[in-house]
Amino acid sequence: MFFPLLPSIWGLSQFLASRESDQFTLRNPLDEEALENTLTVTETIDPQIVVKSILPIWVTAIEAEVGGDANELDAKMTTAPVLQEIDMWRREAARLARLKDQLTNKRFMQAIQKFDSKEVAEVNKIRQFMSQITEKHTQAVSNRNYLECLEVAIRGIQNTKMEDLEELFQKIFVNVFIIWNNADYYNNPLMIVRLLQKIGNELMKKCEAYIDVERVFSGFIISTKANIQQSIECCMTWKRVYNDVVDTLAMEGVMEPLEDNHGIFTQIDAFMQGRNLIFN
Question: Are 28 and 57 in contact (CB under 8 A)?
Fold first, then answer.
C-alpha cells in the first residue's frame, strides 16, 4: 500500500538538499534530472510548499541564467577574436535553446499555470524571464547565423597566398555589408566597425607570420624585406578593396555603406607604419 508513494519520496530525496525553516534548497535546480524530479514532486505535494519553497528557487536559478552572465558575455564578445566570437554566439544560442526548451516544457508550464501571476509574484517573474530568454535566444541565433557566413572566408585568410587575398577581401566586405543592412541585432555601427577591426587583426596575424623578422638576424635580409613589402601592400589592398566595395554599393544603391569608417583601419595603419620603419 505504500508503493505509490515511493516515486515521490525518491524524487524528493534526490532534488532536495536540505529543508530549513520550511524552505527547500535545490542543487542545480535547472539541471535536466533535477528539474524532472522537481516537476514530479510538484504534482504530489501541497501547492503552498511549491509557492513557498520551489518557485523562489526556480526564480533565482532562472534569473542567474538570464541575467547573471549577460554583462560578462558582452565584455567577452567585445574583446574576443572574431572566430572565437562566432563560436561564443554558437554556444550561447545552444545554451538558450536548452533553457527555452526546459521552460516551455508542457509539465513545467502546467506547474506554474496552477497559480495566479497576480497573486504569486514568482510566477509573474518566471513568465517575464521566459520572454527575455526568447528574445535573447532570437538575438543569439541571428548573430550566429550572420557571422557564420563570414567564417569560411575569415579562416581562408590564413590559408590563402598573399597575392591571392584580394578576391577573399571582396567576399568579406560584401558579407559584412549584408550583415550591416540586414541583421536585426548586429547592425549597430560600432559592432560593424569592431567586426572589421577583428578581421583586420586576422590579416595582421598572417602578415606577422609571413614577415618573421627574426630571419633578418640569420642573414635573410633581402627576402625578409621583400616579405615586409608584400605584407604592407597586402594591408593597402585590404583598405583599397574596402573603398572599392563602398563605392560600388553607393553607385548601385543596393546596400547602404557605413556613414563613417572612422576606426576601421586604425590598427592596420599602425601596423603598416611599424613595418615601414623596420623596412627602412
Answer: no
HEC readout, the chain: CCHHHHHHHHHHHHHEEEEECCEEEECCCCCHHHHHHHHHHHCCCCHHHHHHHHHHHHHHHHHHHHHHCHHHHHHHHHHCCHHHHHHHHHHHHHHHHHHHHHHCCHHHHHHHHCCCCCCCHHHHHHHHHHHHHHHHHHHHHHHHHHHHHHHHHHHHHHHCCHHHHHHHHHHHHHHHHHHHHHCCCCCCHHHHHHHHHHHHHHHHHHHHHHHCHHHHHHCCHHHHHHHHHHHHHHHHHHHHHHHHHHHHHHHHCCCCCCCCCCCCCHHHHHHHHHHHHHHC
**pTM of the predicted model as reported, rounded to 2 decimal places:** 0.76
**Residue 279, pLDDT score:** 61
From CA 218, how far away is CA 224, in angstroms rounded?
Answer: 10
What is the torsion angle, in degrees rounded to the nearest 10, for the CA atoms of residue 47, residue 49, residue 51 and residue 57? -140
**CB-based contact 26:57 (threshold 8 Å):** yes
The answer to whether 66 and 139 are in contact (CB under 8 A) is no
Nearest to 187 by CA among 231, 232, 139: 139
Q: Mean pLDDT throughout 92-121?
A: 80
Output the nine-digit C-alpha cell for 31: 539541471
Per-residue pLDDT tens over the stretch 205-215: 998 887 766 66
